[in-house]
Amino acid sequence: MHVHAQDRVSHPLEEEALQPASWDIWDSKYRLKSMEGTPLDASPDDTYQRVASAIAQVETPDKQAFWAERFLWALRHGAIPAGRIISNAGAQAHKPATSTINCTVSGTIRDSMLDILDMVREAGLTLKAGCGIGYEFSTLRPRGALVAGAGASTSGPLSFMDIFDSMCRTISSAGGRRGAQMATFDIAHPDIVDFIRAKRENGRLRQFNLSCLISEPFMRAVQEDREWALVFPANPQELANPETPLSYHPWPVTAGYRTNERGEVACRVYRRLPARRLWDLIMSSNYDYAEPGFILIDKVNEMNNNWFCEVVRATNPCGEQPLPAHGACLLGSINLTRFVKNPFTPQAVFDWSTFDEVVRIFTRLLDNVVEISGLPLPEQMEEILLKRRHGMGFLGLGSAMALLNMRYGDAASVQFAERVAREMALVGWEVGVALAREKGPAPLMEQRFTVTEAMLAQRPAMAEAGIRVGDQLPGKVLLARYSRYLAQFPDALREQIALHGCRFTHHTSIAPTGTIALSLANNASNGIEPSFSHKYSRNVIRAGRKTKEKVDVFSFELLAYRLLVNPDADPYAEEEHNRLPEQFVDANVIDPRAHVDIQAAVQQWVDSSISKTINVPGDFPYDAFKEIYLYAYEKGLKGCTTFRFNPEAFQGVLVKQADLAATTYRFTLANGETVALKGDEEVEYDGEMHNAANLYDALKEGYYGRL
């Protein structure tokens, strides 16, 4: 593809100004190389040209050149497809077995050994193709339950999670990406306490993120200080025993179980405990270990656009994509720093018209990726072709706020964040209707669904409109007129969707964007986040190293400020924070409620979900910490995640220099001698130089030399 000089974007931090860590991550993760390792992309712009050309091939031959140029324009103006697209689009000749999809969810894991092992096989193929994967494990009977016909009791869901963990550890995903997994678990499962505590054991389940599926009844039980029942579907022997304590509950699997008229499953009550005791266990685990995550699953399903045909019980590994069984979603983010004009001046403004145009083109680009997704399982391909969901989001929100002289979390920044999400949603769905008229809607839109009592109970407006049990309605009508998310859209746009359908069922999702923000946006802030810090360390897996490498990185806004406001200074020199403008805040100094306020403002315009982490200082009071989650629940969020640095826990990806310098790690040598080192010290061990904190973590967690 020919590159026109006038198509290049004028920007204060172009490729030549990329900090070393940014160039390095692009080179190791996203730069196309031959099977022999020879670089084929000379620069990040070459990567964009490869991606634009490959995705344009989906268009009819007469339109391919036009759309290749438009896609390239969007990529140069801030559109950044997710890592699997950047890495694998146009790379089939060199990586034929890879996918352009970042995330999936497993098929339902049913409570049988055959089905468990079959899901291990599916997961292995999915991870091998470079996709992350999520699973729900609370469909498996609790530890100690009878295994019919085997004369034995089961070892429980967590022991089977160990199998998935080991499988994932052995598979190095394509393109240098390590396997990523999410395990979700129902708050009513009898083994929920074991699940909450699982990762306190050194080295266990480290290939997983863990999240509890929190129900509305549980939250009410916490607020009202009531008991909470831990249950699992009763087997035939338990049902036949009149002394078995039974209770009917909603359950993700109903086949083979006794149900009542509401579709709830007859469950054996294993035990009852105060809901607040379980709540405190979740809170203390998050305070000390930053897990398990907190997914308000009833809110997820209530707000799901496909409320009439799917039940969501799991998410992708970072939580921004709640998906049904075999669900898959492709992702992409727009770099908001690219639209700030006159940064750091009183005339700083956001270029809304260019932003809207990038959203329009990027929506078509992401939709085209469905055709080249390369998913390894036929069930995954069937699901993505039926619904064509994608997740467009943004990155650099915190950095853009700093450029616009806004302080992350104040009233003006909340309004700005909401407007960004609203513009993205409305423009994207307008394009979705246009694409439906041009190429056809997602097939789900034209399918007809029989109205049930449960559907009328969920959406009273249907009965008010004269719809009755047994009526049949197309998916586009059920989505456009009765989706609680789309209810806030202009009536004219909703009626267009009801008439023509839409090219996709979901359009928006805010991903964490860690390595694409660092590499292709010169470390603009991740996703919806403020910058983690303006100078910090990133722990990177490096081929051939025995431990993770600590790499120093700088925030985008710090580099931009030094280049634009003080160009004579060394852009990598140390800078006292009190010499920077007041909008230069980082994740730890922002009030946790402000984090929640930003997330709530954006979520109302996001039809999937948001991956967000609320960072709190190490000395943050525990009682105040617990209030963060209650506030998130009150604000109607779909989930909440926090992080507090704890040197006793395993090492995170991002680490503040001050935390490392203030932490002492003690090593016991073979002769019994103890050596004490500060976390930021470098130490020679086994013929290689290591960061002390990373060496300690690798030895404790058992991954030393196995990266």
Structural account:
With 707 residues, this protein is an alpha+beta fold. Among the domains are: 208 residues, no CATH class; 167 residues, no CATH class; 56 residues, no CATH class; 45 residues, no CATH class. The chain is built from 26 helices and 29 strands. Strands 1, 2, 3, 6, 7, 11, 14, 17 and 23 form a 9-stranded mixed sheet that branches. Strands 8-10-9 form a 3-stranded antiparallel sheet. Strand 2, helix 5 and strand 3 form a beta-alpha-beta unit. Helix 1 packs across helix 21, helix 3 packs across helix 12 and helix 15 packs parallel to helix 23. The chain is globular. The N terminus is likely disordered.
- Class from helix and strand fractions: alpha+beta
Q: Which percent bin holds the helix content?
A: 25-40%
State the end-to-end distance: 38 Å
What percentage of amino acids are in beta strands?
15-25%
Largest sheet: 9 strands, mixed
Tally of DSSP helical segments: 26
Number of strands: 29
Radius of gyration: 25 Å
Question: What is the average of the pLDDT values?
Answer: 91
Spatial shape:
globular
Spans of at least 5 consecutive residues whose pLDDT stays below 50 are 1-10
